[in-house]
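WP5 quarterly update. Target: MADF domain-containing protein. Source organism: Aquatica leii. Length: 221 aa.
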Amino acid sequence: MDKSWKRAAVTTLIYLYKEKTCLWQVSCPQYTNKVLRTEAWNSITAALNAKWSLHFTIKDVSAKVASLRTNLSKELKLIKASKPTGTGDEAGLEIFDPTWWAFHLLLFLQEHITPATKSASNLNINNTSSTICAGEYELQTNGFGKKRKFQNVAQEEAYQMIEKATHHIEKLSQSKDDVETFATTVEADMRQIRNKTLIRRAKRRILEILQELQEEDETIS
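Structure tokens (predicted):
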């Protein structure tokens, strides 16, 4: 039975996990509700298996999420370590710029993860430690990413302003409604199609369905 994680399946997992705020957002009222958290993991696992014809268990899925969170934490640590301390001459400063493909998809967790923490994340359903699948992404973080150089402090300040604006946009994106979340999922699915003719056909069919439903909605309204 194949239980290997393909990038497309991991992408779907990230989107499904993001929707279940009770699993990662401490301020969520259901965050401490074990029953609802168990239901959330069941829902994610079922949806993932159905979409990609997989046979993952809840343990497999929670372990993969733990692995992703661990690697995000390492990337955030590298960014933090490369930032200026505010002392001495910082001309030519190098800022770590992550290139791990899943980094930006996981940024909704940034405020909920302490960089390089050794403490277990709140992932396990029964509050016991989950086994982390360390192999697949761990190797990618060693010597991973590229350096961004700044010739003076002004450039660093400009970069920080951009970083703050990006962070603000990311916070706004956490409030996505169901339609926007679905659109993001469709985008991820479309990117898995390599044949341009099939892509055009998919676009045409989607637009036809949307037009039909919009006309129907107008008659109902």
